[in-house]
Write a structure and sequence with these properties.
- The structure holds two protein chains of two kinds.
- Chain A is of the alpha+beta class.
- Chain A contains five helices and four strands; from the N terminus they run H-E-H-H-E-H-E-E-H.
- In chain A, strands 1-2 form a two-stranded parallel sheet. A two-stranded antiparallel sheet of chain A has the order 3-4.
- Chain B is built from five helices and three strands; from the N terminus they run H-H-H-H-H-E-E-E.
- Chain B has a two-stranded antiparallel ribbon with strand order 1-2.
- Chain B folds into two domains: 61 residues, no CATH class; 69 residues, no CATH class.
- The relative contact order of chain B is 0.06.
- About 9% of the residues of chain B have low confidence.
- Classes of the chains: A alpha+beta, B alpha+beta.
- Chains A and B meet through helix 1, strand 1, helix 2, helix 3 and strand 2 of A and helix 4, helix 5, strand 1 and strand 3 of B.
Chain lengths: 126, 151
């Protein structure tokens, strides 16, 4: 998995965190064609315990290796970073944004994020 | 800019070539031979995919409402099919993109300080730990953040 490869490559120089946020495409929300095809049917969690369960499903199915965090039920971090449905950021040593993908599903650009991490970590980009 | 609606690309390209309109938005096939022959000048394409085929720059700054989503008038047949499958109407699509554009205005941009937050850490298996993580505790090293959900 691509995220794991990038994590393994840079985990010595960069801190990685996966923030588990509200469901992007639950059955009681904006269902996606991909979920219909793959029969991924989950309701939006109503409690932190339900969200925790979804995070466990996600870690297990996607075999995610990086440290995981859980957004609260006010969706505070999701709102702060306009993260829904998914999004990638890179912050420098002082907590300043050096890269982010565009808002929305077309913006989940792992390649561009990887290039930004390589540049910032001082690895020349081929 | 004044919008001049055409009944298809054919008449629009004819008027472009004749000089009665200075600029047009079309799909690539109707204009490609004219671009190659130097009769029309390609300024930009609106998708990443077509950049490699045409050699024209990506119109990255002109996406709908400043997002990565296309305008409802520029949805591809693939996107329209996905909307049909999920029952999403054009109005719902517009509302979704508008909401996301609005949310994005408050998010930190490149060069801005990322807002601090405190949320719970999970174990490698995704279980709650009761331990609180604070973003500002990570200063001194770059931080890569992945936001997402299973669905």
């Amino acid at each position: 998995m691509r995220l794991n490869e990038i994590y393994e490559e840079f985990k010595g120089r960069v801190r990685f965190y996966c923030v588990y946020i509200q469901e992007a495409h639950p059955t009681d929300g904006r269902q996606s064609a991909g979920n219909l095809a793959e029969e991924v049917f989950y309701e939006q969690p109503k409690s932190i315990e339900e969200r925790e369960e979804m995070a466990q499903v996600c870690v297990l199915r996607l075999n995610l290796k990086m440290p995981m965090l859980l957004d609260n039920m006010s969706n505070e971090v999701d709102r702060l970073y306009a993260a829904l449905p998914d999004r990638l950021y890179l912050l420098d040593e002082n907590g300043v944004v050096v890269f982010r993908t565009v808002v929305g599903s077309p913006g989940f650009d792992v390649d561009a994020w990887h290039v930004a991490i390589r540049r910032h970590a001082g690895v020349s980009v081929a | 800019m004044q919008h001049v609606p055409y009944n298809g690309a054919g008449p629009a390209v004819t008027d472009l070539l004749g000089g009665s309109i200075p600029l047009g938005f079309t799909a690539v096939p109707p204009v490609a031979p004219h671009i190659k022959a130097g009769r029309l000048k390609a300024i930009a394409v609106t998708t990443r995919f077509q950049r490699n085929r045409t050699g024209v720059s990506l119109m990255s700054e002109a996406k709908w409402l400043g997002t990565s989503y296309p305008s409802p008038d520029a949805l591809s047949s693939e996107q329209l099919e996905k909307m049909r499958l999920t029952g999403q109407t054009r109005e719902q699509y517009e509302t979704m993109v508008r909401e996301r554009a609005l949310r994005d205005r408050a998010a930190p941009k490149v060069g801005e300080r990322a807002p601090d937050f405190e949320i719970e850490r999970l174990t490698p298996a995704g279980k709650r730990t009761g331990e609180i993580f604070r973003l500002s505790s990570t200063r001194g090293k770059p931080v890569a953040l992945v936001f997402g959900s299973y669905t």
